[in-house]
Amino acid sequence: MKVLLLFAAVLSLSFAGVDMSAVQTTEVQTSFNPTSDWQVFGNYEGITVEYKQEKIVHSGRNALFVFFKVTNTNTETKTFNFTRAFYRNDVCWNCKRLDHQENNFSLTLAPNESVEGSATNKENALMLFDRFTKLVPGMTDDELTNVVFSNVTVQ
Predict the structure, then answer these.
(1) Cα–Cα distance between 3 and 33 in angstroms, integer?
(2) Is 62 part of a structural domain of the chain?
(3) How many domains does the chain have?
């Protein structure tokens, strides 16, 4: 069943013009539907990734951000490496630049340590801009519709 679902996702994205050779989800990643509560995004060899959506003031305007929390459930220190693709209105915005440094992240966590993005911890690996809550002339209503982690390694 998982293979069939993965095949359907790959097939549907290929018709959207997205280069799936660079963006491949893992079997452990869940669907993307942010809420105000932490929910599991994926589990990767003892590393749990959760996410939530939160309204904060950004550049003087109310905006929605998606924050990530990464927890090492292992009994030893681990480094979590990943590439992150993100989609706005179901179109991948950075798929042609996934090899660039700004889309590749590395977090080292001690046993049972968690790090999380927030309005006060805006580390790039732990947050993504979703959208402004009120548009002014000249702004688009693009919103974050999906996030995909690929090239995941746990060392």
Answers:
(1) 21
(2) yes
(3) 1
| Contact of 77 with 154, CB cutoff 8 Å | no
Distance CA 130, CA 27 (A): 24
Q: What is the largest CA-CA distance in the chain?
A: 52
| CB-neighbour burial class of residue 68 (10 A; exposed 0-12, middle 13-18, buried 19+) | buried
Cα-based torsion angle of the residue sequence 13, 100, 63, 116 in order, rounded to the nearest 10 degrees: 100
Cα–Cα distance, 126 to 119 (Å, whole number): 11
| Domain CATH for 145 | 2.60.40
pTM of the model: 0.79
Residues 56 and 111: their CA atoms lie apart, in Å, by 31
What pLDDT, in 10s, does the model give residues 17-42? 344 333 444 445 668 899 999 999 99
Domain containing residue 47: 21-154
| Residue 44: inside a domain | yes
Strand partners for 54: 65
Structure tokens at 1: 């069943």
CA distance 120 to 106: 20
Tokens (6 digits) for 6: 């993965």
What phi, psi does 82 have (nearest 5°)?
A: -160, 160
Reading the block at residue 4, the tokens are 């069939």
Judge whether 7 lies within some domain. no
